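Field reference: sequence -> structure
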Amino acid sequence: MNISQNQRKVYYLALALILVAIALVSTWSLWLKPADSTSLAAPTPTAAAQVTPATGATVAPGATPTVGATTEATAAPAQAAKKTSTIVYYQDNYGYLVPVMCSVPLADGIAKATLSMMVQSPDNDMQAARLGLRTVLPENTSIDLDISGGLARIDLGREVLDMADAAAESNMIDAVVQTLTEFDTVDRVEFLIGGQKREKLTHGTDVSKTFTRGDINVESMEPTMSVTDANPVMLYFPADSGAVIVPVTRMVEGKSDINTAVLELAKGPTGDEMLESVVPAGCGLIDVKVEDGVAKLNFTGEFVNLVQNSDGGRLALKALVLTCTQFDGVKSVELYVDGQPYDAAQGELGVPSFMNIADSIYYEAIQTQSNAIFEID
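Structure field:
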């Protein structure tokens, strides 16, 4: 559909007003949210403590967002509030855990505030749904949290005993451990349920031990693979919702290096229609070379079909870069098709500061929907 210059101006004005309205609503909802929907916590790490994103966090030079790093809001002085970045673990419709960097008002007890965002509630569920994700803790779950000497002792309400099944229980425990160990002040997590130490949850999930940070979204090993020869390699795939990147741990035989990672990424996800492939169907990997910090990936001719994805291949390229730059010494990625340099479009191969950033996802969703409605190239 062709539109006139005046119509185009009206469209951009309307889009700007929508973005402003969403920002105001989000800010308003954060301030109106009850100060604490959970029980009062024991001392928690102060917001000044810097937290480096762990799982899958790939930081570009000059852009190092960290959990607990503050920024000034652009609101009027009377309404201005400091913000802090925190990493919230949600789940998708298939049970994959998905870390998302969110911006929240700065306050003491940021670790507990982060966990509170993972509890089912109308506000939290709406925020998660805008990302195509879901919260992991049952509605009305109370949270007590004490952090000392690297140990986070968390007391969850008895609502967690009513999870649907063992998979939901395990996901909840993993999400809490991953979230807390994003903070530099936490390296171990211990669980209490309703103030009591328990051996297992209702469906058999073990909560008796002290947890440390582990691999995320671990795939089942091939039956023929030897446990002693298996090594984990982190891969990144776009979710089938087309909104977020999902980290997946795949067990492989041999070295967990960039060559293995890119080869496994080219094979695609193991789940049927649960995650999106990064390379187009029929595309093969010719070779991988790392020179002076640059990973040079050479694919067969079918790679050019990536632009036929609904987003032009943006998320696939992001997943490819994240998979490569997780390895020490790899600072950037160059693409080749049948040995010839391939320009994936300006800016597409920039190194992301984090795999999923909530504000960016919201904005891109609005752009995609608006372009579809107005058919703007």
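Note: The CA atoms of residues 315 and 375 lie 21 Å apart.
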